[in-house]
Amino acid sequence: MAPVARGEIEPRRFHPALVFALLFVGLFALHLPLLRLPYFWDEAGYYVPAARDLLLTGTLIPHSTLSNAHPPLVIAYLALWWKIAGYAPEVTRTAMLVIAAFSLLGVFRLAQRIANTEVAIASTLCTALYPVFFAQSSLAHLDLAAAGLTVWGLRAYAEDRRAATAFWFSLATLAKETAILAPLALFVWKCSAAILPVFPSASCPRDAGETPPPQPPRPVLSEAQGTGALHSGQRSLRSILLLVPLIPFGLWYAYHYLRTGFVFGNPEFFRYNVEATLHPLRVLLALVMRLWQTFGYMNLYLLTLAALLAMWGPPLQDKARPRIAGGIQLSFLAVIVAYGLVMALIGGAVLARYMLPVVPLVIIVCVSTLWRRVRLWRGVVAIVALAFVAGWFVNPPYGFSLEDNFAYRDYILLHERAEQFVEARYPMARVLTAWPASDELTRAYLGYVTRPMRVFRIEDFTAEQLMSAADRRSSFDLALVFSTKYEPPYPLLGRWHLWQEWKARFFDYHRDVPPPAAAQILGGHLVYTETRHGQWVGVIEMEQVMEAQATR
């Protein structure tokens, strides 16, 4: 009897339901202090209002906010949870943790299939603790769901299960439109592999990671060559199934066009995310940022550098440690390249969560490299894991999005306390502020205030915007000012004037005026201020309110 291949027995060691339960319980326990937090930034600005519209009216096109044309799978998922368990932040965040646990299960099963169980456990742990993934795990965004479904699609692809591959990638595309990049990249790669025989097979061999024995050279114009060419053609035809996700993708946008008259969201959304992003210099800068987000962001560089250093030495010889199949690695590379290039071309905000579908692939390959080449590889992975946990709390020495670690919690707590102060002391006031605080004050269901307040909105808290508002000070009674971004005290590129100029020109960078200076510009009195880990918020009472209170 032939020996059973390692790849055939390892997937049965841990039942998927058990792994999922362990992952969910772990995530839930770690996120327990965060579950009751009000909604944050894009959650409050689009995703929660859109899901609430679906819950209340049954329409897939939101009406309380401008449609961004994002596919409806995650929105419908949240609405279903609210229908069953009730509308509350803890319900929303628990629902997203279910998605996060399912995504990590996909990472585990993919790594187990193409490598082994040890690599799978380490890769899943690193992915779960990676600050961007961890922070996004309980936030009502689309990217983590799209990433998880993409990983499941890649697992089916590695096993050459074509129908399952089309199914998972179709779901990923219905979670977020950019998930279409993965199957398209794989389709191009499969066609290239079929045409150019120098490429290894794109599918995983039955015994995952085994290096096939060397083949003798084939004679020119042999019958085997003709059979191989025929099989390559058949593989190309089967690759057409990778284009199946284009069907739900196209159907959704056709429906959106029929309902709204726009294909890719409202005109301002399309302008900001596509038309305004195609300057050659901006594309180059965005590409560098995307590469950093894929290989180095939030302490990820420790893992990638460790893997690169390990490549200088030979593989360990104490036991067989096969590498991930070359075709799988090249398939991963095709997906990573597609995401890097396209995400450099589109997306007004260069957010790290947009790259979540490819970061687990980098982690799996790097962990597998360490497993093959470093005797103390578990110690290296433990150091990386600790660095990721530190990234939850310690802000990096460069600008970053607040949603990428616990900075989003600092933001929510600052705004929650300041807006409760405003509501309690000035319940009928007209409040000057900027988005997203304008939505937090006018939409009580977001969790910041108990009833809507009147808002006078400006774009940001630059000196120009505040001076323009000062000329209309009769239109508002007080101002709620806050930091709209994190400014590191000692930025790495802080003294490079050209970088500051590029950020302002291409990436909407601006400097917010702090509360004391804002009060001076507006001609008011600072009555509330609070800072937290580099972020701040302030409430400024205008002179007419002070005078009215003095006459009482």
Notes on the protein architecture:
Helices cover 57% and strands 6% of the residues. With 552 residues, it is mostly helical. The protein folds into two domains: 372 residues, no CATH class; 145 residues, Rossmann fold. Strand 4 and strand 5 form a beta hairpin. It starts with 5 loop residues before the first helix and ends with a helix. The N terminus is likely disordered.
Largest sheet: 5 strands, mixed
Give the strand order of the largest sheet, numbering strands 1, 2, ... along the chain: 2-1-3-5-4
User: What is the distance, rounded to the nearest whole angstrom, between the alpha carbons of the first and last residues?
Assistant: 97 Å
Mean pLDDT across every amino acid position: 89
Order of helices and strands: HHHHHHHHHHHHHHHHHHHEHEHEHHEEH
Number of helices: 24
Q: What low-confidence regions span 5 or more consecutive residues with pLDDT below 50?
A: 1-12, 201-230
Classify the beta-strand content into a percent band.
Answer: 5-15%
Number of E-type strands: 5
Going by helix content, strand content and strand pairing, the class is mainly alpha
Shape: globular
Task: Give the C-alpha Rg.
Answer: 26 Å
Return the domain count.
2
